[in-house]
Structure formats: structure tokens, C-alpha cells
Amino acid sequence: MGKVTTDIYTFAAVQNGGFMGGDTMRSHHLPCFVFAVFALCTAIASPKVYGGEEPARFRFLTLNVWGDYFENPVPEREAGMEAAILRDTPDVVSLQEVTTNWYQSPMFAHLGKAGYALVRGDEAAALRRAALKGKKTPKHINHEPLLYRTDRFRLLDSGTDFFHLSLQSSKSVTWAVLEEKTGKRRFAAFATHFWWKRNGLESDTIRELNARHILGVLATLRRKWGAGLPAILGGDLNSTEKSIAHAMLRSGGFQNAASHADIRSNHCSHHGNPVRGADGKYHGSVSPAAMDIPDRSIDHIYYTKGIHALRHEIGVYQEVLDITDHSPVLVEFTMGN
Fold this sequence. Notes:
By secondary structure, the chain is an alpha+beta fold. It has one domain (3-20, 58-335): Deoxyribonuclease I, Chain A (4-Layer Sandwich). Helices cover 32% and strands 26% of the residues. The chain has a 6-stranded mixed β-sheet with strand order 3-4-2-1-14-13. A hairpin with a 5-residue loop joins strand 6 and strand 7. Helix 3 (78-86) packs parallel to helix 5 and helix 7 (201-225) packs parallel to helix 8. The radius of gyration is 22 Å and the shape is globular.
């Protein structure tokens, strides 16, 4: 392999070593086998109960905002992006390609007023860790933040790591350990963006190492917060489910909501850039044939044991097609006590 792959292998090796009901029935009127059938049907029809109560439901959203790297100004799209984030009232949000102009836009202030807190992690510490590993430390920000609902969760822990500053500084992972305010449930949430090139094994290997990095972070969090800490991860993985990066995530106990949720979308998450029309505004479009190939999706939500995915949705409505080249991916899930 080329020098790029050698550098990232060295980076990953150091990183992984240094990670921190109906009518009442009386039993004497019915044969015993009828009760057995009734009990079985009831168990199938009812949601699983933890500790005498139904499991809590949560919504996790991931969305690539189409960073303003391409003369695609933030002010023209920020209101639409805010609406897309709030549309399904997610509990946790994973974002990608959030640039300085996005952070300085009114959107995050509005989301704060709507009850969301922003998690960027300690970017200075992440840069120091990269410097200790012989990498350059440009003035840089975390492009993959998380948001969470403050009325529902308290933040216990958070952080961020840049995957490979010498290759591309905008690819990273951000994590947060969130606890439900009832104190009953706790989990780790991840936002991430994997390496982007598609030039065969070399780039596939870099993405695989991005995935391995996340498994190292999760292992560290579990040593601190408990071996059974559930985790959910969302992001632009720049790869399909059949790639080796996804195999790496599965080896660490993650499974993809696109293939394991009770209800799954049959759409593709990536639909190309919106184009500025004669009216001066951005307009997105997608052919039905292109969207109905879920195997081509590169935006994914993965989760571990302790979480059950009920519903997986990919948004293809016009308002979102007009503001970004990626569709939002939403997963509704349950979690036991």
C-alpha cells in the first residue's frame, strides 16, 4: 500500500493502544390449553416489559448538512436545516460537515431555545493527542457534533478525536454518555464521518481503521461506565454495509438499523448535490429508481446490545432535497432499564 495507508496504520496502532384487554375469563370455564394459547398470543402482541413497565422509546437522527466547501452558503439553507432536524423531534442528533459558518449561524441558538444542547467534546485535547502522535495540529474544529434533548437527558461524559489530521482534518468522531433524567437508562451516543475517497482497498482500509478507532473509544467508555453500556452510532460512513469498515463495526457488537430494525426504509440516503436554479435558489431532485436501492446508502445508524430498533426511516421529502446532498436517517429505538 501507499504511504497514506502506512501513516494511518501507524496512527491507528498508537490510538488503539492509548485510548483511554377483553372480557374477563374464569379458569374453570376454559381448558388449560386455551390459557396457554392466550398467554402466547399476548406475549407476541405486547411489547417487551422491563421491570414491570414498557421500555422507553427514543429517536436518533443522523444528517450530513452539506458543508459550505462548495460555494454553497449556509444562510440560504440554515432555516431548512433547522426544520429538518426538528421535524421528527429526535432525542439525539448526529451531524456531519458542520463548519465554522454553521456554528456561527443562528441555527444552533434556535436549537438551544428548542431544548437541545450541543456536544463538541474537548477539541483542544483532541489536537494535543494528535500532536503526541506526530501529527500536525492546525487550528481546527470538530465537524461532527452531537445534540441531545436537555429535558430528557443529562450529560455524564463526552469527547472527540480527529481520525487523521495529516489526511483530512474534518473527519472525526464525537461521543457522549447520556443518562435519562429518571436515572433508569444510560447509553453512549456517537457522531462520526469516515474517510471519503473511493479508490479501492487503500481507502477501504482507512475507513476500517476509522471504525476500529470507535471500537477503542467504546471499550474505554465501558471500562469507566460499565461493561454493559449500550451504544448507538450515526454518521456518514462513506461506504455501504458490505464494506470492511462495517464488518469491523459488526465485529465489535454493532448492528445496522437498516437491516435489523423491525420496520426498515427501502430508500438510499445519498442523492447528490442540490443545484441552483433559474430562480437563484437550490433545488434537489432524485429519480425513484436511484432512491429505491437501499444497498447504496452511505449514511448509517448502528447500535449494540441493550438497544432494540423499532423503525428505520430515510427522509426523501423535497424540503431536505433542496438543502443537502444527504437524506436524514432516523431510528426509533427502545432501551431497557
